[in-house]
Inosine/uridine-preferring nucleoside hydrolase domain-containing protein
Amino acid sequence: IFMGGAAMCLGNITPVAEFNIYVDPHAANIVLNSGVRTVMFGLDVTHKVNVNDKIINDIKSNHNKSSILFADLMNFYSKTHRKVFEIDESPLHDPCVIGYLIDKNIFSGKFVNVQVEEDSTLTRGKTVTDWVKVTDRKPNCHVMVDANAEEFFSLLKTELKKLN
């Protein structure tokens, strides 16, 4: 399971590439073509799990150290993200992977072939995803594209409340 890529959306480091894949597209291709079943959490799905002030305050209402720490971190992250992107919500990239490990039903996707562009100066790091089987390449990755954000944040709040 990895957080990286942009299957059907714009990139965040170039117009088409997500940062984690862009920095080492060759390694990404090795993993994707290793024969090991992979699950990709790209920007397509992580941008559907967005934290905002209401969610941050709801988590903080747990009134325990873990929830308050998480809320404070999200406040800092959100302020920075809002300045850069001028939007009121901030995507939670890596926490989606943890949410999936706890409850796979929160996310959905499709098992397809994914290759990564390694050589082009224009599209380096692009996760080329064959959604409709136009190539003869066998599916090698379960690409997550949708999330139930409400369920995700409910799970997050519940799990944070258990800590301390």
